[in-house]
Amino acid sequence: MNIRYFAWVRERVGVEEETIDVPGNVKTVADLIAHLKSLDENHAAAFEEDEAIRVALDQMHVEQDAALGDAREAAFFPPMTGG
Amino acid sequence: MTVRPLVRVQPEDFDVREETLRLTEGRKDVGALVSFTGLCRDEAGTLSALELEHYPGMAEAELVRISQQALERWPLTGLTVIHRHGKIVPGENIVLVIAASAHRRAAFEAADFLMDYLKTRAPFWKKEHFVSGSGGRWVDAKTGDTEDAARWTEKENRS
Predict the structure, then answer these.
(1) Please, which of A46, A69, B39, B102 could form a disulfide with A12 given CB 3.0 to 4.6 Å?
(2) How many domains does chain A have?
(3) Sign of the four-CA dihedral B73, B74, B79, B81
(4) What is the pLDDT of residues B39-56, one digit of tens each?
(5) How far from A70 is each of A22, A24, A58, B45, B80, CA to CA, in Å?
(6) Which of A8, A60, A83 is nearest residue B38 as measured by Cβ atoms?
């Protein structure tokens, strides 16, 4: 699965984008966050305040309890501050 | 007639006059036009620039989704949303929303709705850079913006 990060989440992870193998027991966005946190210290730091993190699957906003389904891209970012 | 919103996400500046003309030129059915321009302020001389990060593809898609919602909700004759990204210095434009309609209420409300939804749902993030040179700082999302956006669902629930 393709994973993208933006703003301070990107800075903490240290990469803009990466491809990861999603284990079979990872079914929801929350499962994916738990899996990413386990990868290394940078990921753990990025997702430390995981409740503050917003998620998009295939460029649509979703909640953290959403199923990953057939999504090809997940993006993680802080609350938006445009406008 | 189906109204198609004009949505652009771009690093370069926009011309408010040109965008206004696009919605009114050659038409006689537009009775009201509300335009909102968001600019970069210098925060009492302390801010040197804003850096606008965005999610390419989703930023455009989300602005189109929000515009479609506005078009379903108000009888608009035209709608334009332009958001810049990249480095923007104080005094420069950041965002433009123009709503055109036969009557003023729809135009005022649609422009207000667009800005409230855009701030909380369009994937853009601001980083402040300071004159003092001390590193950049990501702007925190404001609770007030979320409350402003919630006004529109409250209205829906009441009706």
Answers:
(1) A46
(2) 1
(3) negative
(4) 999 999 999 999 999 999
(5) 12, 13, 9, 49, 33
(6) A83
pTM confidence score:
0.95
SS (H, E, C) B109-120: HHHHHHHHHHHH
The nearest CA of chain B is from the CA of A79 a distance in Å of 6
When CB atoms are compared, the residue of B61, B83, B125 closest to A59 is B61
Q: Is some CB atom of chain A closer than 8 A to the CB atom of B89?
A: no
pLDDT of residue B159: 46
Chain B contacts of A82, Cβ < 8 Å?
52, 54, 83, 95, 118-119, 122-126
B71-114 pLDDT per residue, tens:
999 999 999 999 999 999 999 999 999 999 999 999 999 999 99
CATH number, position A6: 3.10.20.30
> ∠ at Cα B131 (B128, B133), nearest 5°?
80
Cβ of residue B113 closer than 8 Å to a chain A Cβ: no
Please name the amino acid found at residue A10. Answer: R
Per the structure, the complete domain to which residue A46 belongs is given by 2-77
